[in-house]
Amino acid sequence: MEQKEIENHIKRIVIRVPNWIGDAVMATASIEALIKLFPQASIYIAARPWVASVFKAHKGIKGIIELEYQEKTTLKGLITNAKKIKSKDFDLALILPNSIESALVTFLARVPIRIGHNSQGRSLFLTHSVKVPEFKKTRHEVFYYLNLVSYIERYILKKSQTSISLYSKEIGSPALKLYVDKKSLDSSKLLLKKLNIDLNKGLIGFNPGAAYGPAKCWPTDKFRELAGLISKNLSHSILVFGTKREIPIAQEICKASSKVYSLCGKTSLSEAIALISKLNLMVTNDSGLMHVAAALDIPSIAIFGSTNPITTGPWSKKAIVVRKELECSPCLKRQCPRKDMDFACMKQISVEEVFSYVKKFI
Fold first, then answer.
1. pTM of the predicted model, to two decimals?
2. Residue 205 resides in a domain
3. Which of 43, 49, 278, 334 is deepest in the core (most CB within 10 A)?
4. Chain centroid to CA 240: how far?
């Protein structure tokens, strides 16, 4: 088939997106690239329920298939999700996660073209098993997902000149893309009104949690002290984001000032995205909401400890990464493995240093 014939033949595409919010947001650059490659195709997202909201308002997405989730994968669960995908009669599946399960489901759904990286020995379930790129541990995760779209452009569409550069050195290019749901925006404005928060005085967001583990979290007392400095020196209100799990942390931070408000467990992901779109600044650990802020082009101060900002840092020109370069970092551990270091990568980041960056942004 000629290139144009292939484009016309592929009319329905499903993208199996990653299971973590941050990874799903980092994948949006790839989704935008795929939409440009197949402007006539109907493109669907297949996602776990908690990630689906990332794509809820996306203008280029035809629909979202919410996949059932079980802690332990069962044959029944696989078949249920395969049936959901099979019902849409897709021509091509782009599989972004590395798991065997994500490839197996599209195999069971009998999608004719199934493209993914050859991780975890799952090549049997893929029609196009793409070699994991050598730059996997040295370049941003954005390019890992783009590698698959580049493969489609080169080997499926057979274009001699590709539009996707996998070696761009400019942070934030290609850009992430996140859309704000209007209904969620309206409800988030109503929430701010109930809290008597004046938007004209400015908003700063705090994100003191991280799903990966405590090694990614700047100490709560430092967030509280920073909240006190901001409240004393600036007019801005502070919104503390998080799930119900972060409620005790938020309560501690709120002790700093009456201008600090906890939203932990009070918003949906869609509402959190809408609220972040209204911020003047986000101060955050390495987390899903950090990537949300980057995709919404919100200035951010990202505090890094155990993880690697080169591969998972905020993909934005408006973000600053604050970290301490130690002999053991980045260790990529969930908890600090060295008692002799006493969580130094985070404890050595002072409140004064972070506040100096806050003042530069504000």
1. 0.93
2. yes
3. 43
4. 18
